[in-house]
Amino acid sequence: MTDDLDDLRKALRAVAPAPDPAAKAAALARAMEAFDANAAQAREAARQESADQPRPTSDRPRRAGFLTGVRKMLSKLTSRPMLAATASVAAICVGVVITQPGIWQRPDIADTGRKPAAEQAPSSQSAAVAADTQIAPPPADDRARQTAVTTAEAPAPEADAPLAAPPALIDQVADEPAVVAEEEMSGDAQAEGLARMPKSAEADPNGMTAYFEAAPASNALSDAAAPSPEPNTETFSNDTPNPVKIVAEEPVSTFSTDVDTASWSVVRSSVMNGYLPPAEAVRIEEMVNYFPYSYPAPEAGGAPFLTEVSLFQTPWNKDTQLLRIGLQGRLPAIEERPALDLVFLIDTSGSMEDANKLPLLIQSFRLMLGQLRPEDRVAIVTYAGSAGLVLEPTEAKDRAKIEAALGRLGAGGSTAGAEGLELAYQTAESMKGEGRIGRILLATDGDFNVGVSDPEGLESYVARKRESGTYLSVLGFGRGNLDDATMQSLAQNGNGTAAYIDTLAEAQKVLVDQLTGALFPIADDVKVQVEFNPAAVAEYRLIGYETRALAREDFNNDKVDAGEIGAGLQVTAFYEVTPVGSPARLSDPLRYGAQPDFEGDIAELGFLKLRYKDPGETLSKLIEQPIPPIPGEADEDARFAAAIAGMGQLLSEPKYLGGWGWDDAIALANGAKGADPYGYRAGAVQIMRLAQSLRGN
Question: What are phi and psi of 636, to 5 degrees?
Fold first, then answer.
């Protein structure tokens, strides 16, 4: 027994010598000739209507272990006469798997069970291959591999004929020793064997993968069905673009601030992958707020943010004006910020296996660790089929321990998001300390499918939990099943922010360059309200902020949740306003409506009010200031932000832009790049150019 296990371990560790190219080519040719000849024999035998029947697989010894999954696959195949000959070929492949390390990467045959040597050879009583049998190539996504084999229904033949293996394959397995029975193998031996299986095509020294994937279809295997592409299940949170409002009827506009940036990253990811984003993925405020602007900083001792207001001509309409409202948050010195208690809540479900999901997530968090102070603490909670505490609260100075925990993460299982959230909040509660800030960083593709999965249920749960003082921010990864709607709901109701990370460079921006702002709040429940003067403004529309709209009465209600502003972060909002008497007015004055009664110069375009709470407080504070009516020249920041707002409308709803198009947006942005130390604005111009080309196509 011990010798057998030693031999097995040696066989798994061994690296087979590289095949001779000429011999390999000759073997491949012989294999295909034999395959075609035997396929013809199989069809002929089927027509002879022999009385022999395939031996049922149910009476074979059942053993658990290395190739159980393969044996089950063969059992299903041989239970259908049409696929019996295919099963014989698969049985030969199993024999090759035992001795060829490179074959382990094949997703359609790799599994966790082994066969006895007697079952490696094709059965002489296998069923004939039907001419219309279709075997699809293995899909790239594990979730589609279950349906890789399909058949066309046909009457079962009464006889079966043997289908010999290609000579090249038989030569490779003829001299191999019998495989150790699965029940005779210890758990350690099985685990060791699995651990040594190659994980990628590069680990295929003998070219076996190339044999299976490059072999041309022939006879019974022709017209193979291609795997269906994985359906796109992405959902985005947005609403109908804000309409034009008539000041005489609705002079007050109210909304919550938004410092999220996810929409710009999604737009960029889409365009860089060769397609335009869906209109519902375009949230203009998040696109505008992605870029830094040179707003003046607030003075020490005053409000946590400073407001800047400017008015200038609209780039796409010379008869309207853009009102820009900018907020700049205070950035405290690093040594003055409170200590952090972070809970990394990491989605490790099967949908996170792609390179731009869990692997990128781990790299991103590793970048972030270098920015933490020694007294900060980190805990890691993961969720897949169930939730678990991977790393207990650990001081950031023990970076090696944290990185080791990250390095052990792997993707697999369903997505028990609700259970993970519950455990993360419990962990955050246990970490609470005087003068410390608690925050959960949820990193996911948003594919919640176990437990509470609807956005409303999660919203209610997170809204209740935010009262504990723990903030919840969400980082999105990957495409294809990105559940932006759920992530937005969680972030907004968790008093946190939402960002989408598609590259390591984006991780650098979010988790390194803007780490302080992302983790340290300076103002909670920030609301903006503008009252327009009907003597100066006939119409207005708020550009973006559709998902942040508030009722007029919500402004003074401190129980109504609103957006947060982190240290050093900015908020920018645009109104397009139509002055009284402008030919750009879209609505007719009411016949019986009261006309504005004023004389002389107009002192105010409108009046701006803001409310906010200091972190942890329940009562809000009020800031007020008039809006001057005289437009001025737009600076570089204003022009660039307007170009991005115009781009967002081109991608979603361009009806207010007239003849203004991509060339105009590109020229406006290109002329307002300024210093651009990180290249964000230059990158935006490139995205605009690509989007223009895609729109043209």
Answer: -60, -45
Q: What is the pLDDT of residue 308?
A: 96
Amino acid at the residue 60: R
CA distances from 594 to 247, 534, 538, 580, 591 (A): 12, 11, 13, 14, 9
Kindly state whether residues 65 and 91 are assigned to the same domain: yes
Assess contact for 220 and 131: CB atoms under 8 A: yes
Whether residue 141 has pLDDT greater than 50: no
* Whole-number Å distance between alpha carbons of 69 and 55: 20
d(CA 646, CA 653) in angstroms, rounded, equals 10
- Which tokens in the block code for residue 295? 């707003």
Q: Do the beta carbons of residue 105 and residue 200 sit within 8 Å?
A: yes
> Helix (H, G, I), strand (E, B), or coil: what is residue 311?
strand
Residue 651 within a domain: yes
Is residue 240 included in any domain, yes or no?
A: no
| CATH number reported for the structural domain that contains residue 476 in this entry | 3.40.50.410
Phi, psi dihedral angles at 148 (to 5 degrees): -70, -20
Q: Please indicate, yes or no, whether residues 427 and 531 belong to a single structural domain of this protein.
A: no
Higher-pLDDT residue of 201 and 498 is 498
3-state secondary structure of 410: coil
- Chain segment 432-484, per-residue pLDDT in tens: 988 899 999 999 987 665 455 565 777 788 888 888 889 999 999 998 888 88
CA 447, CA 357: separation in Å to the nearest integer? 12
Do 311 and 364 share a domain, yes or no?
Answer: no
| Final residue belonging to a domain, choices 479, 508, 537 | 508
In a domain, 216, yes or no: yes
Share of the chain above pLDDT 70, in %: 64
Residue 121 confidence (pLDDT): 40
Q: What range does the domain containing 202 cover?
A: 2-221
> Are residues 547 and 573 both part of a single domain?
yes
301 within domain boundaries: yes
Which residues lie closer than 8 Å to 201 by C-beta, 6 or more apart? Answer: 105, 209
CA distances, 445 to each of 192, 347, 361, 406, 649 (Å): 32, 8, 10, 18, 26
Task: Find which of 10-14, 224-228, 380-384 is predicted with most confidence, using mean pLDDT.
Answer: 380-384
Coil, helix or strand at residue 185: coil
Q: What is the dihedral of CA 257, 258, 259, 261, to 10 degrees?
A: -160
In angstroms, the CA 331 to CA 352 distance is 35
Burial label, 624 (beta-carbon count in 10 A; 0-12, 13-18, 19+): exposed
